[in-house]
């Protein structure tokens, strides 16, 4: 009996434990295959090359029965929930990025998510972060032992000639004894411990972006993987508890950035303003807590829709400034935007302005942000009124901004309407609603009834049952005829909205009861899993 207990997810990566019989191992981690599965080494047909033809695979590949099951991109194996999935020869695609992606999308597409993935003879301290990021959970010591036999010294930074051993680059017990083999194994263990920590903090991407630099193949794999939205987007959480570190050119291609841009264009409700003003971002988040934005607010006084131009998100409407990752990203500020950055950012601005026909668009910007705004305005064929003279916070600039808005109607930003649209894709009438209290205990009330509470960490809204009544569709999970005692487990779910992502607020509907809670996995994974917590329940109501 095998059981893969996933404690935390970070896109394709999972942190937890894999158990078989009496034995248990942490994941991502090293599995002692001879101890767990003594027969596996003696099996034949478990080592078919990934590039083998369908005919070869059907003749020579033996998937085994139950767990572990040896899989192949062209195989017709059936895999049970909780099984150990063995993908042989994966080390051969670490230097073939297109094959890596092709085989990975095929395998992940056909095998259910609640299975533990083992890549034999593939993990080195310098490659294992990428392997875990791609959704492999278990590894062995064969690849590092092979490097030891070659006399190589393995670090997370790469594979080095053996003369680096004993040169004070490492102080592990292996190095102290002059034992490279011991060092190489410990280096892999240490890297895996670090990976588990990064997954638990929902920031494995940061580690992978750092680790892959010395190997062009790894950078290529990461970039190609970013293009596989059908694979990655459903398992990318809607919000994370940690800052969004955008320090590389790949940051622009992260799912979170693409999702932000797409939701802005597809979900934003029609603006309550006829005039828009494009403003620069601030290092301090949310922007409105910064000194510069205090000054902008005094000049604008609600007479225009405030849209903040920023990298890598492109555009942040004022009402969304607290929503993840708008209040959570960190970038190196140099004042310089490269061509690629300009092109991506201006396309988000153009997409937004194209959907919202403002009577006037003011650009209170300078430098790269102004250039991006100009490119977007050109694309849309709209005139741009530039109000900044020099730096946007210069008194002359602020006076010009104030004067440009003379006579325009004042309307405050509608945070609740904006966030509900971004989060649930619903346009909700918010007349009579007011935000009460202070962070972290803010709530949205109407007529003395609480409709939503505001999650101070993510800026997202948590609907009460009365709040859910305002959101007509989507984000629903239906369960079998049972009364949940606490969290909802995946096997009890009969249907789940496709659009649900980890971290989303959901409404659970059962026979004679409903519940509010937060999704612990995406909607598609809820339906494909037979194990694990799917919804963390906050409140249950019996009818
Ligand atoms: Zn060492």
In whole angstroms, how far apart are the ends?
39 Å
How many H/I helical runs? 18
Which kinds of small molecule does this entry bind, naming each only once? zinc ion
Give the overall pLDDT as a whole number: 94
Counted beta strands? 27
Helix content: 25-40%
Low-confidence stretches: none
What fraction of residues sit in β-strands?
Answer: 15-25%
Major beta sheet summary: 6 strands, mixed
Overall shape: it is globular
Strands in their spatial order, largest beta sheet:
23-27-26-25-22-24
Q: In angstroms, what is the radius of gyration?
A: 26 Å
Structural class: alpha/beta
Please sum up the structure shown:
This protein is α/β, with parallel strands linked by helices.
Q: What order do the helices and strands come in, and which of them pair?
A:
Elements: E1 2-10, E2 13-20, E3 23-27, E4 29-30, H1 33-36, H2 54-60, E5 69-71, E6 84-87, H3 97-110, E7 116-118, H4 128-133, E8 138-139, H5 142-149, E9 152-155, E10 158-161, H6 173-176, H7 180-200, H8 204-211, H9 216-226, H10 229-232, E11 244-245, H11 255-267, E12 275-280, H12 291-300, E13 305-310, E14 314-317, E15 329-330, H13 339-355, E16 360-363, H14 367-380, E17 385-386, H15 395-404, H16 415-424, E18 433-436, E19 443-446, E20 449-454, E21 461-463, H17 465-468, E22 476-479, E23 488-489, E24 493-496, E25 505-510, E26 513-519, H18 523-528, E27 533-542
Parallel strand pairs: 4-8, 5-6, 6-7, 11-15, 12-13, 12-16, 16-17, 22-25
Antiparallel strand pairs: 1-2, 2-3, 9-10, 13-14, 18-19, 19-20, 20-21, 22-24, 23-27, 25-26, 26-27
